[in-house]
Amino acid sequence: MKTLLLQTGTVPAALLCCLLCALCWGSWANTQKQAAVRNCSFELFYVDFVVGFSLSILLASLLPGTSSSRFFTALFYDLMHPHWNSIGYVMLSGLVWSLGNLLLIAATTVAGMAVSMSVGLSLSWSGAIALQYLLYPHQVSDPPWLLASVLFVLLALGLAAKAYQLQISSKAGKVGLGISLSLLAGIVILFFYGLTWRAVSPSYFSGAGGSMTPHSALFFFACGALAGAPLFCSFAIRYPLMGRPKQWKSYFTTPFRLHLIGWSGGIIWAIGAVGCFYGLTYAPPLLAFVLCNALAPLIAMVWGLHRWKEFKGSPRPALRLMIWVFILLVAAPVCMMMAGDTL
């Protein structure tokens, strides 16, 4: 019983949804920047972020087509005929994503949006495809292009690290922390893709290996993310990267406006997730994946460099390096598209 996230199951509509996803996933970190400007710690911001994301995913699942009954049919069908492997994979995917995204937000707090997102997100999407190739090499028709794409990403990561070092040359002690958090976030998040792929039925995602509908997968993904957030946030609150340890009661004394900013960030990410699922359902899988994920760090770089002026006052070589990072991160997905037409 195939349910649709939108009524029009066409490739152009799917590609537009992929672009919407890239815009959302490249822009949501603006809310974290806004919260940081108002002295809200990233740990407390992330609590609201996950709440906004989870509630939005539930709402999106309740609104397919013209009636919510389709969602209940799909969800209840998966519950009445549970494939525990698929449910376990997608909930573990949400758990992994929750940890990776917390690390990414921490990296953004330390290193800024342009550096953390270009490093973390680029490593995650390129690493996910490279890992998929190692597991299923027959899916790549031209491996040298895949190798070129990965090399472009790795070179971009190195240049971003160098640019960040030049940016804060007077505070060299923090260079390792910002880049390390970005890399760790990317490594953790890259496993979220494969776990989700193993949960959804191939009737929806070409090449997938699970049995769930997209609606049910989104629902259980949100459950996994929501389940992991209190544990990860509690650890981050008790052992903060910067400043003194906090307590949960500080969350309840946070001004409503700051809660609203965090919820907004989660809503933006959730909109992108729905667009990604729809795009992967109807567009060629590799094209959809690259549009959703490879454009996001480029958009984030534009926000960080233009909107937040993160490299203002930095040595000119640092800005030139970031321009080269941008160029390499444009070339990488082009090479990836040349490597093969399936994931």
Distance linking N and C termini: 24 Å
Q: What is the general shape?
A: globular
Q: Report the sheet-strand fraction.
A: under 5%
Oligomeric description of these chains: single chain
Instruction: Please identify the structural class as seen in this structure.
Output: mainly alpha
Counted beta strands: 0
The sequence of SSEs as H and E is HHHHHHHHHHHHH
Unreliably modeled segments: 1-8, 65-71
Instruction: Provide the number of structural domains.
Output: 1
Counting DSSP H or I runs of 4 or more residues, the number of helices is: 13
Main sheet specs: none
Radius of gyration, in angstroms, nearest whole number: 20 Å
Indicate the mean pLDDT: 87
What helical percentage do the residues reach? Answer: over 70%
Please tell me about this protein's structure.
Helix content is 76%, strand content 0%. It is an all-alpha fold and 343 residues long. It has one domain. Helix 5 (84-111) runs antiparallel to helix 6, helix 5 (84-111) crosses helix 9 and helix 7 runs antiparallel to helix 13. The longest helix has 28 residues, at 84-111. The radius of gyration is 20 Å and the shape is globular. 55% of the residues are buried.
Primary descriptors:
343 residues, mainly alpha, globular
SSE layout and pairing:
Blueprint: H1 11-27, H2 29-37, H3 42-62, H4 69-80, H5 84-111, H6 113-135, H7 143-167, H8 175-197, H9 214-238, H10 249-252, H11 256-282, H12 285-307, H13 316-339
Describe the structure in brief.
By secondary structure, this protein is mainly alpha-helical. The protein is built from 13 helices and no strands.
